């Protein structure tokens, strides 16, 4: 190492948070290697990288082989005294057997409901072999939220046992941009995961979420493809405490027709639901029926973990994360393609971590350790990251920060960058400073109402107090500006997100992904060579959890 670099590294080690501006060794991400990794991982041969499939086996094998080739140490579990590259993640798997029989009865006249087109009913996650319900009453319960701290209750004491409840996606502030839920940005109450959890707490037969593209932030194709295949969950002792028997989605116009048949106007009720005075309404004359078998089993999927030990403080860890999984094989699209390749989501992030591992191994060692964690079952509810955060290999109290990469943009180099959500923490300030050194500026999450903060693998760490961000490519493209970047993002969400069309294309521009990797590498290396411990901003809901472990970082 040159003397100048030694001096710089030493200076970083003792610098205060405000002084972490020493340039790291110049990184050199290789676009050709990245392209190869992405093309392999998103090829038809890998079958969409579904957990508990042959695609998982191929993906895990590929990642481990690459880590061995790079020379990164195993960072996973220890078995028979030997450290592995993997961490076993036990998961409960649920799948509807065949096509479910579903129908709606309106004033005594029954009509079938088409799975995947009118509704998307998920496999029950309550360890039952069969779900049968006949003429279940239907209730509209607004946004399906019970938030005592906001004096908000959409249920008003209505008995929901044996009933199917229609609820709106997002939370009550989405359309007005103001109100009791903090404005446009989605709270966790707006996520469909919360709504299903609330269904179980309310003792309902089930919640069916009404889909609308704007408040959901994705179209019906995404809903259909994500909810009609195998479902996964953590292994629970009492699954009925977290899941109602029936969970699913319904097209907006289908739900509106049910409401109209019962004498209600959809838009009028939705407007009423945006106030705390809203009361749930029963849809007289409207009932739902269903009959389908469910296969359930416990499988073991895998996280993959690589480690580059720190030279002087190896027990302190900077953690990079990305999810390796996608949707596997599912319903075919209009072209008959049933493989959900997941090239952008998230072969890009998976390949980025491999390239980051190569950069750390080819540059001088850092003082702190750097780990690379590829998690499973993100698409099934952040299950791999949730499992790791609950069973960490590297103690969370001494995890300096988590840098997540999910769906990097192949539209070309951008002048800006972003993160998911608008949480305030030192880690973001440091990322902004790193971007400034590279001539890039920070743009706040352009769609906080979409709730991306709750939808990426940094979230299980954040809620346990670990400073964590999910990096996002910018939209202000060098070639075409914001208009071109937004058009590309909108097209991807409409035409490819969670669809078979998310495939590698020769039209991809890798310079943007290379620049993104350079940026997050620079931040990670600065963290790994410093003695600083990033914190959450005062008032953050995650600060107390981090503060509780402060003594372990002295």
UniProtKB/TrEMBL annotation:
GO molecular function (one): metalloexopeptidase activity
Taxonomic placement: Bacteria, Pseudomonadati, Pseudomonadota, Alphaproteobacteria, Caulobacterales
GO biological process: proteolysis
Domain PA as annotated: residue spans: 136-222
Superkingdom as given in the UniProt entry: Bacteria
Signal peptide region: 1-21
Key word RNA-binding present: no
Residue ranges annotated for the Peptidase M28 domain, each copy included: 303-508
Classification via Gene3D superfamilies: 3.50.30.30, Zn peptidases
Keywords: Aminopeptidase, Hydrolase, Metal-binding, Protease, Signal, Zinc
InterPro entries, sorted: M28_fam, PA_dom_sf, PA_domain, Peptidase_M28
Protein name: Peptidase M20
